[in-house]
Amino acid sequence: MFESDEYPETVIEILRVLYFSGKLQTTADLRTALNRRGVDVETRTIRYHLTNLEKNGFVRRYGNRGVMLSPEGVEEAKMLLVFDRVGGLAMETERLSLDCDYDARTGKGSIMVNTLLVDRGKTGEALEMLSQASGSGVILSSRLGMLHAGERMWNCEVPEGKNALIGVSGRNYDIMLQQARIPTETSATFLYRVEDGRPRGIADIISHSGTTLSPGELLIRGKYTSVSGVVAAGSGLVTAAIKTFPAVFYDEVKSILESLDESLFSGLVEVRAQIPQSYRMSYKDRNRGYMLVYGGANFFAPLVEQGLAEQLSISHSIYPSERMLPVKEIAAALCD
């Protein structure tokens, strides 16, 4: 790998465009994008840099359709652009949010999703475990999508011998309210204690500032959760989040939440017009309402906790909601 000062400015900007677009880009597309950023270069210069990036294994060509980052290129770009990505919400998540077009009235459209890579030979076992978790009461949605080796979604290509499981992200609550022009933000993610199937209280908390990784992803991959315990005996630690909005929009928020398809969005614990004193992170929260919702990745947490899978990515891409089926249907189809 290389340090950023070893790259010409044009190369860094090319990597920036390829990373944050997550899509095929032709030379003309790249030139237009670079011009928007104040980098005026000729097409032949872009081709020259792409050739070098291809030699280093950072991009792949797809004929006349354009180029995309390779898995190695994605990792290189993430390091180069780490300070671009840092903040209350990672820039790639903000960019993906703009492409979400789910319509609650039709029940169709693309939503933000989490992904988990599972060995192909362990997929049946993973689906069985997810089927058991689907009735735990701490799951946002038990609908699932799946990609196979070689298939790609945003900057992720499924490696050989793996399947990618796709689950609903809690970030969709923010997106749908923002689409309704209701300013919404996730202020914190926390470990939420559940006892005998009922919420008990907050155990630990991570504030959403200065991070490029999802706090929920850190908690689950670090094995701080015990969703498996909730599935088996009704007690354990799960992820949840506080999402805040101006209190004056409470009625509109409540109406939107009530209109949602429960098979996709059933993670709401409570919604109030005023944040309780004990939940306020700063004086600004005095005039804000809030939602407390279970983390979408709770669905995948038992697989990580039991060592069946490790590569979890939260709010990692977008996926058509209509292609996501109840996990029990997918498990049954795999057995046929």
From TrEMBL:
Residues 92-324 form the NrpR regulatory domain. It comes from the Bacteria. Residues 12-76 form the Ribonuclease R winged-helix domain. InterPro entries: NRD (IPR002846), NrpR (IPR038982), NrpR_dom_sf (IPR036984), RNase_R_HTH_12 (IPR013668), WH_DNA-bd_sf (IPR036390). It holds the Pfam family WHD_RNase_R. This is Uncharacterized protein. It comes from Aminivibrio pyruvatiphilus. The lineage of its organism: Bacteria, Thermotogati, Synergistota, Synergistia, Synergistales.
